[in-house]
Amino acid sequence: MERSPGEGPRPSPLDQPSAPSDPTDQPPAAHAKPDPGSGGQPAGPGAAGEALAVLTSFGRRLLVLIPVYLAGAVGLSVGFVLFGLALYLGWRRVRDEKERSLRAARQLLDDEEQLTAKTLYMSHRELPAWVSFPDVEKAEWLNKIVAQVWPFLGQYMEKLLAETVAPAVRGSNPHLQTFTFTRVELGEKPLRIIGVKVHRGRRKEQILLDLNISYVGDVQIDVEVKKYFCKAGIKGMQLHGVLRVILEPLIGDLPIVGAVSMFFIRRPTLDINWTGMTNLLDIPGLSSLSDTMIMDSIAAFLVLPNRLLVPLVPDLQDVAQLRSPLPRGIIRIHLLAARGLSSKDKYVKGLIEGKSDPYALVRLGTQTFCSRVIDEELNPQWRETYEVMVHEVPGQEIEVEVFDKDPDKDDFLGRMKLDVGKVLQAGVLDDWFPLQGGQGQVHLRLEWLSLLSDAEKLEQVLQWNRGVSSRPEPPSAAILVVYLDRGQDLPLKKGNKEPNPMVQLSIQDVTQESKAVYSSNCPVWEEAFRFFLQDPQSQELDVQVKDDSRALTLGALTLPLARLLTAPELTLDQWFQLSSSGPNSRLYMKLVMRILYLDSSEVSFPTVPGSPDAWDEDNESPQRGSSVDAPPRPCHTTPDSQFGTEHVLRIHVLEAQDLIAKDRFLGGLVKGKSDPYVKLKLAGRSFRSHVVREDLNPRWNEVFEVIVTSIPGQELDIEVFDKDLDKDDFLGRCRVSLTTVLNSGFLDEWLTLEDVPSGRLHLRLERLTPRPTAAELEEVLQVNSLIQTQKSAELAAALLSVYMERAEDLPLRKGTKPPSPYATLTVGDTTHKTKTISQTSAPVWDESASFLIRKPHTESLELQVRGEGTGALGSLSLPLSELLVADQLCLDRWFTLSSGQGQVLLRAQLGILVSQHSGVEAHSHSYSHSSSSLSEEPELWGGPPHITSSAPELRQRLTHVDSPLEPPAGPLGQVKLTVWYYSEERKLVSIVHGCRALRQNGRDPPDPYVSLLLLPDKNRGTKRKTSQKKRTLNPEFNERFEWELPLDEALRRKLDVSVKSNSSFMSRERELLGKVRGQDGRAEVRPSCFHRYDLMDDKDKGSS
């Protein structure tokens, strides 16, 4: 017979210790008649004692014969002898029973269970199932108090339901606006407390009580919805379970206890006798409910992690922690296998016995998981992993129930229960557990994960998780607990109506919702939400505040969880400003993260993910095999020869001349002009310029970029239209062969418009070939900022090419069926979707996509693998900054999905787009710096200009940004500027890049900004200033400013540059941090190149 887990080995009779000499320790029968076959040792210590015991026993048997001899000598009949013997035996039996009862009562106080077992001559396992040894204390005095308080509790419940619950129900559903309670009576049968058990709390400031409660009441509550003439209610209810009461914190002032928390550790037995329930569920909006769903919801509300907190003192600290405390720990449950299950399937009316289709339900409190079904197997192998949060130790139990899947009703195969305290004590518990109520055993591996309040071991945990295969969900590295407290100043609905706000919190594909607070823009939720995190470094918490209809969004918030990793104790407790909401709309939340750490000497962390040292049950894996069984897994992608050969065509639409006039007024009597715009079509994409109003010689000055290949025969189609209210008028077209541009690399021409009497268009086309080196990236970014036009989108600095080859080990659909996966690749607002591969967990796509990259340092490639109709299967976020440091700007390998289950094989390569015809000549010499105007520089703005053939408008030299030789800053710091004249737009342009090493005058750093003034005018029309940066000595602005000036006037102007800071919040005074000064004592910067200038004090009059 198998012994239960946790039960020690039973000693054999030979291993039993000898009986003690104290007669009170022996069963009562041992004093009257020892059992000769018991195998026990004689009472005497030696041979003399053994002989004396035999003689004494023989003498007692002779004494029994004396009455018989006397009766025969006197001549009495045998009946008298038998009568007397019966009296004696009856008296003896009564006396022995009394002695036995007294002896058992005395021993009961010491060890009740052990004494009962000895008295019954049974082992622990031979006791009947109904025999129990409760360790609770009766509390009849408490039941008397409850009985006396019960009527007054009924009055309170009536007031609570009428004043609080009924208005909330009426506001929750428009069909329940006439909902009322017509009768509330708790009845005459009060709740009874069967027993009370007191536990030692984890801390001295708390007391733990377990109340075994039973309520079989005659409660009667009637409700009515007058709009639908519907009446329903409750008439009778039963509730049985163990209610845990925690008294904490204990304080040194009355009432000694700060608050009372109550909850059920396990789901209680709840049975409600409804009246009129069928009528109530016919109301629109409630028809989806059922009697079972309502009872499940009520029962779940009373079970952990839900709890009821009653503060007993005002201004109690850490109310959120008391209402929703952090879990004690996490148990990772590996449901591995089962064996010896009973067969439940029968065929041919029971004549043929089949097997079973087993599956398992794993439960801890309200946390329930269902395994996949193994068809026709009595020894199933599941190998699934679940993670559960443990809140109370002792008390909570892990329960596993095994069922046979059937079309009608599933057959029960057995269950096992295990207290979580044994897992906490063992750290790692790996054993076969017998199933009660059936036959067979289930194999579990249970791991206790501790919660760490610092991120020191996060990398170790992530490394371990990468080497562990887990399904249906990947192993978690951390948990996040969000305490949603309240909101403030949420926007109103239309008509200035108060909203009914609720909150949706999402991490990847897991979304939880708060309750709705009705008719309030300052709601109080006081709810807690718990999430498992696979990678806290990359995941984000998305918060959406919505009206309860879900149609109106009141605000949003996205919080990278990496922010918590640098916070004290991984905790943020503050107000969070909402975006897309009111100016003062915010949420108060407390976010607590804890790292999950398996602290066990039995488990070692592998140094290489997926190494053989990682634990793998029975060392079996469906992916393993010889090269004969399956082809070897490729290490790199095998794209075709055309991959990565794309170019980028930069199309600069400059201007047009002599367009025909299409606008007519007064029925055609008055001839107007046209409102022209340009449409471009190339490589399946189309672009459109802005409209220039009333101009036959328009200037657009717009730049468009498109990814092209070297396929011959492609053409760029250009059409010009006149914008009208009804149908746009045609102004001409032209075509450019793409082969010509790709071969020459550059084209700058006036193209004659076809199919119209007059008109021509000025285009500039340049082919940009990606280069696999990051040395010129900063130079490209700087050039793009200089040639950027206001009407165009930001220019691309690089081209990203991605080859998506295949994936493996994707999670199965509902645990058993393979998905139909496809992938989406996203960079910014551009997305590419692959084809869908039907019914496989190892799809092969062989597809490529290309993306224009504008800021390689900050953008990332987002990959989502999804199943057709099943949702997300995994995701991957690849920062492009990783490509910048890779060899040849290329990564080609397997990537693990963030879900932890599944990998993708892809190639991502980056190419830098260097323009050879930008009009900006770049030099890689080191920075020069100055404290004066450009009049001290070797090359003057007014001197001989540096002109390139393609862009005569840019007359400057551009220094290399990556220069390692930055000069030391002056005593007040430096400002970095770029100033030049853009003849295409006839504008003077300045870019304020930033400042460094500013001087700190007070205790706090300044709030700097840069002020620009075009001298000699000092009016607001020529004044510009940057945004203000808070508390920094090295602000970065990167802001662009323009002045419309002819070239000759720009050469006569001087630019006044000042760095200032706000003195205080209430004052309008500005503190001058420094100015750029010239030799004549006036602060000035003439139009010059990219430059750093030392800041000087305005009071200094000496030369620099």
UniProtKB/TrEMBL annotation:
One of its GO terms (biological process) is lipid transport. CDD domains: C2A_C2C_Synaptotagmin_like, C2B_Synaptotagmin-like, C2C_KIAA1228, SMP_ESyt1. The chain crosses the membrane at residues 62-91. InterPro entries: C2_dom (IPR000008), C2_domain_sf (IPR035892), C2C_KIAA1228 (IPR037752), Ext_Synaptotagmin_C2A (IPR037733), Ext_Synaptotagmin_C2B (IPR037749), Extended_Synaptotagmin (IPR051634), SMP_LBD (IPR031468), Synaptotagmin_SMP (IPR039010). It is a peripheral membrane protein; Multi-pass membrane protein. Gene3D superfamilies: C2 domain. Residues 312-433, 454-580, 627-751, 777-899, 971-1097 form the C2 domain. Its main location: membrane. Residues 1-48, 608-642 are annotated as: Disordered. It comes from the Eukaryota. Interacts with ESYT2 and ESYT3. Interacts with ADGRD1; inhibiting the G-protein-coupled receptor activity of ADGRD1. Interaction with ADGRD1 is abolished when cytosolic calcium increases, relieving ADGRD1 G-protein-coupled receptor activity. Interacts (phosphorylated form) with SLC2A4. Binds calcium (via the C2 domains) and translocates to sites of contact between the endoplasmic reticulum and the cell membrane in response to increased cytosolic calcium levels. Helps tether the endoplasmic reticulum to the cell membrane and promotes the formation of appositions between the endoplasmic reticulum and the cell membrane. Acts as an inhibitor of ADGRD1 G-protein-coupled receptor activity in absence of cytosolic calcium. Binds glycerophospholipids in a barrel-like domain and may play a role in cellular lipid transport. Belongs to the extended synaptotagmin family. This is Extended synaptotagmin-1. It comes from Cebus imitator (Panamanian white-faced capuchin). The lineage of its organism: Eukaryota, Metazoa, Chordata, Craniata, Vertebrata.
